[in-house]
Amino acid sequence: MSSPLHAPTVAGDDRVVHAREVTKKFGGVTALDSVSLDVHRSELLVLLGLSGSGKSTFLRCLNGLHPPTSGSIEVRGTRVDLAGGRDIRALRRDVGFIFQHFNLVGRLSCLENVLIGGLGRLSVPRYGALTYPRSMRAEALAHLDRVGLADFAARRADTLSGGQQQRVGIARTLMQRPKLLLADEPVASLDPENAGVVMDLLFQVCVEEKLTVVCTLHQIDLAMGWAHRIVGLRGGRKVLDRPAVGLSRDEVMGIYQRVDPLSLPASTPARGPL
Ligand SMILES: Nc1ncnc2c1ncn2[C@@H]1O[C@H](COP(=O)(O)OP(=O)(O)OP(=O)(O)O)[C@@H](O)[C@H]1O
Fold first, then answer.
1. How big is the chain by its Cα radius of gyration, in Å?
2. Residue 234, ligand 1, Cβ within 6 A
3. 271 in a domain, yes or no?
4. What CATH number does the domain containing 116 carry?
5. CA 52 to CA 13: how far, in whole Å?
6. Which of 82, 86, 165, 264 is most buried (CB neighbours < 10 A)?
C-alpha cells in the first residue's frame, strides 16, 4: 500500500481541538509540559515521539480521561478541563477511540462489534445483532463494506487477522458517528502492509467524512506518508509542529534527539537520533 501522493497540505478551517499550555503531571513526572495545539476539521495529525514523551497522555486529555494539571483544552467548543461528568459523557459520544489492540469482543460477530459503536444512540442495551433496529444493521454493514469486510459480517471477530480486526475497529468507531477520532498507535501490532492499509483508511475517512484524526505513531514513514501535519513531543514538550508536506526526514528525526547537542558542553559526545 503506497501513501497518498495527493495528500492535501491544507485541511479544513474549522478548529476542533484548541489546547493551550496544557501541563499534565503524575506525581513528580511531568508527562506534558505546556503543550499548545490546534487541530482542524478534516485534518489528520500525527503525534510522534519517544516512548514516554506524552503522546498517549495528550490523547487522554483530549477525551477527558486525564484532567490536565494546568492549561485549557477545548474540543468542539466544550472546555474539557472544566467539564463535569455529563458534559464529558456527551463529548465522548463525539470522540471515537481506536486502540492498539483493537478491543473487539472476540466471541461476537464482526457485525455486532460494529453495532456496539452505535449503542450510545440507543436507550437500552442490545444483545445480538438482530435486536438492533434494521436501519442500524444496514449502517453497520455499510461501514464493514467501507473497510472491505462486508463478507466477514457474520464471522467471529477473534477469527480475523490483526489487520482485519483493526479495520473492524475503525468500522465500529465510524458507527459512533464521531467528529474527532483519536487513534493510539493503531498500527503498532500490524505488519507493514496492513499498517499501510489501516493508515490509508484513516486518511480516507478523515478527508471524505471531514473528520479530525489525531493519531500517535512510532513509524516515521507512515507519519510522513499519511499525515497532514506532524507534531513531535520530546519529554512532554512540543518540539515540532509542521505540515507533513515539505518536511524532511532529518527534520522529523530531530524529534528523537534525547538531548539538544547545542546544550551539551563541548567535551560531551552528542547522542544522535535513535
Ligand atoms: N496513569 C499514569 N500514572 C503515572 N504516570 C503516568 C501515567 N500515564 C503516563 N504516565 C507517565 O507519563 C509519561 C508519558 O507517558 P505516555 O504514555 O503519555 O507516553 P507515550 O509517548 O504515549 O509513550 P508510548 O509511546 O510508550 O506509548 C511517562 O513518563 C509515563 O510513565
1. 19
2. no
3. no
4. 3.40.50.300
5. 31
6. 165
185 located within any domain:
yes
Q: Count of CB atoms within 10 A of residue 65's CB?
A: 15
The verdict on the CB of residue 26 being under 6 Å from ligand 1 is: yes
Instruction: Report which ligand 1 atom has the smallest distance to the Cα of 60.
Output: 18
Range in 2-6, 68-72, 223-227 the model is least confident about: 2-6
Angle between helices 162-175 and 134-146 (to 10 degrees): 140
ipTM exceeding cut-off 0.90 for this assembly = yes
Q: Model's pTM, two decimal places?
A: 0.87
User: 144 burial class (0-12, 13-18, 19+ CB within 10 angstroms)?
Assistant: buried
Nearest CA to ligand 1 atom 26: 51
Give the structural domain span for 77.
15-263
Backbone region of residue 77 per phi and psi (left: phi > 0; alpha: psi in -120 to 50; beta: other values) = left
Ligand 1 touching residue 51 (CB < 6 A): yes
- Taking the centre of ligand 1 as the mean of its atom positions, its distance from the CA of residue 29, in whole angstroms, is 9
